[in-house]
Amino acid sequence: MIIIGELINASRKAIGAAIEGKDAEAIKKVARDQFEAGANFIDVNAGIFVGEEPAYLKWLVETVQEEVDAPCAIDSPDPKAIEAGLAVHKGTPMINSISLEKERYDKLLPILAGTDLRVIALCMSDEGMPETVEDRLKIADKLVNGLIQKNVKVENIFVDPLVQPISVNNTFGVEFLDSVEEIMKRFPGIHTACGLSNISYGLPARKFMNQAFMVMAIAKGLDGAIMNPLDQKMMANIIAAEALAGKDKFCMSYLKAFRAKKFEV
Amino acid sequence: MAVKDIFQAVLEFDEAKVSELTRKELDAGTNIQSILNDGLINAMDEVGKQFSEGVLFVPEMLMAAQAMKAGLGVLKPHLADTDNKPKGTIIIGTVKGDLHDIGKNLVGMMMEGAGFNVVDLGVDVDTEKFVQAAKDNDAQIVALSALLTTTMPAMEATVASLKESGSGVKTMIGGAPVTEAFATKIGSDGYSDDAPGAVELARKLVAA
Question: Contact A167/B57, CB-based, under 8 Å?
Fold first, then answer.
């Protein structure tokens, strides 16, 4: 599982304040904690600061990479902000995210063309949010083919099929899960990644539903997650589910996690 | 007290029972206003209250609204014969560049449940379209939704245009990144963080 640590997001109060106050130590701590908990990418988002986003994203990338030897996921729909982050980034970051919304697609495609950047491709178009497998595959097809034509490697693409809450329509879970399966089957070598917590919007005891949904998605082939890596129960569920899905040879990751006491949560 | 039974049936999310009881009350000659206000609308207020308190959840709110709508469907042909007027007209939509519809739909549904006439413009709605719809429908309120920090500026622009339009229409806003402070800053007449709160706010704005 490729884990994108989601905590450095300006819409979280403490992070927003830390960015505004240029509190590098606070940002570094959150980066370090996520890295040590297993994050492969550290997401950086300064979306609430209209006008200041490029400068703040640049600062976030620099600050995070001073602390941890990990790539960032540059989280913005704005090409100027993304380029500001890219300019100072060491190694190969992820762009979070392109979608089929025309303006966003047209502006981000040139940044990605011919590069080795990883990219999240969000199944969303100007026609609205997809609800069925068919809706999602239609968008994914166009996104993936558009990227490949611009010399983006299929293994650098992380399709986000877009999670919709089960509380408003009881088919939304299955439609998402079947989409993951179909995307992984149709585009060999591709990844799927998403934030899952939207599934439990409008319901109580959300963490149980989120954990169960993660396990079900892993069974269908999900191999990326935008999540809080400090959530130890979720991490334990992921490790067990990956072993069960046949992705953990001789259960070595599972056993390693056991010895590191990761199941004592 | 069979109107009370209608109220109860909505709270049990029982669509068939609400229809049946509403029909029975109509046949018995019970005051239509009483069936609507004391039965159906009161029940949705109770659902809203319990939702805000964390006792009921989104799927239950949806089921209650369906049950209420079933009763309303039975009443509707007869409402024209009374001096019943909608509690006001509300234009609702998600602002330009934003495709999120779930929160907006929940608010619209609860507004209908409270007896408002709701005109839903959908998602990714231009400022001009809000202004035009407010005029065409002689609306009292325009309710705006935004779920992205990147589309909150569109909310600000729409609120400004509605003010400039001189129609006197009130505005209210909501959505995950939206705050009371933002509402004040952009000069919106109100903000709510959930659907039942939006209903309460709409009542206040219409009464003001």
Answer: yes
